[in-house]
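Narrative summary of target 7.
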Amino acid sequence: MSSSKNGVHVLIFPFPAQGHILPLLDFTHQLLLHGFKITILVTPKNLPILDPLLSAHPSVQTLVFPFPGHPSLPAGVENVKDVGNSGNAPIIAGLSKLRGPILEWFKAQPNPPVAIVYDFFLGWTQDLAQELGIPGIVFYTSGGLLVSILGEIWKNFGSYKDLGLIEFNGLPKSPRFVREHMPSVFQKYREGDPTWEIVRNGFIANGKSFGSIFNTFEALESEYLSFLKKEMGHDRVYSIGPINLVGGPGRNGKSNVDVGVNERIFTWLDECDDGSVLYVAFGSQKLLTKAQMESLTIGLEKSGVRFILVAKQLTAQQLEEGYGSVPEGFEDRVSGRGLVIKGWAPQVEILGHRAIGGFLSHCGWNSVLEAIVAGVQILGWPMEADQFINAWLLVENMKTSVRVFEGADSVPDPIELGRRISDAMGNDLFKERAK
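Modeled conformation, tokenized:
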């Protein structure tokens, strides 16, 4: 790569979903610390997510294109958080219409980028990089196991599409899943549908990229990273995770946290015994229904364990749609034993506290990495996307975690949930293995 006096110029192209954009911005921060010249491509409504990075690195250029939209998306939607998981495919297809404008922009630049680092949902960018004659480097916000599975599925779709139980015998440890636990992209894929063909072709194109960067680490997934090197036919497969723990200003949210709330959390934790507290949180996107929230809170109450529950602040519309907030009277009943945090919580710092002995989680990849690095066992409640695959890695493969429930819409029996929580928190074997 030719280097000019102000650094190697790279175009960064994130996918507009919380769990995707933040890790790529954390990686971008590292590139900036190493003297790269960076341009980030976003649509107008996603620009504010870049604020922490832009204020730390005023040299960053932004390339803002209007979002081309998609017939199945409500007007004005540009980020998955506004529509949920079902928005992935239409947003991918909508963004693919930017290919022409991006090409024009490149041709007009006196010093155009010499490489594109793009999110793995935007695999169509690989063809664009080829047309420009520059390396396309794919950034995977997920682990090597998921990507190995996706590669197998898209290449051999015909042989998997009608199976109820899917076995990946060509992969290390031969993972197997019932169809309902496969990634949503596989379940929702409709053959011949133009939107879905863009998604599928993009995943296949990722395998032809110049290099792949994974938000994972060798000690966790060495066998799947080695498998992918063989599949891709080269060694440019890099694991750099957990990228958010390296630190960086790519994270939004910390600035508006009430310092008093933070103090209250850690003062409370300091008074608890080592490994005695269960931390409960379901990631940035997932909302529990009213019935799920009621069952969860009763389960926590019956479990007898100490806990911290992170509950989102719901809008009036979300309440109307049937999502649940913490039931009335719950906080009083568990006073002293349980702490409820409404809104954002300093998850990494909480997991790192000596008093935390378990993390009841939906098994999203960022949460999984944070728990593993903190040496905390996960009590899994996988719901959708890659979460069942991540749970398999922890529960069946590494045997450092337990599954207490599963399913995006199902409601656990609260007494049974309480018992499972109590058993897991009393199981020193799993806590030791996690450490």
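The CA atoms of residues 138 and 212 lie 5 Å apart.
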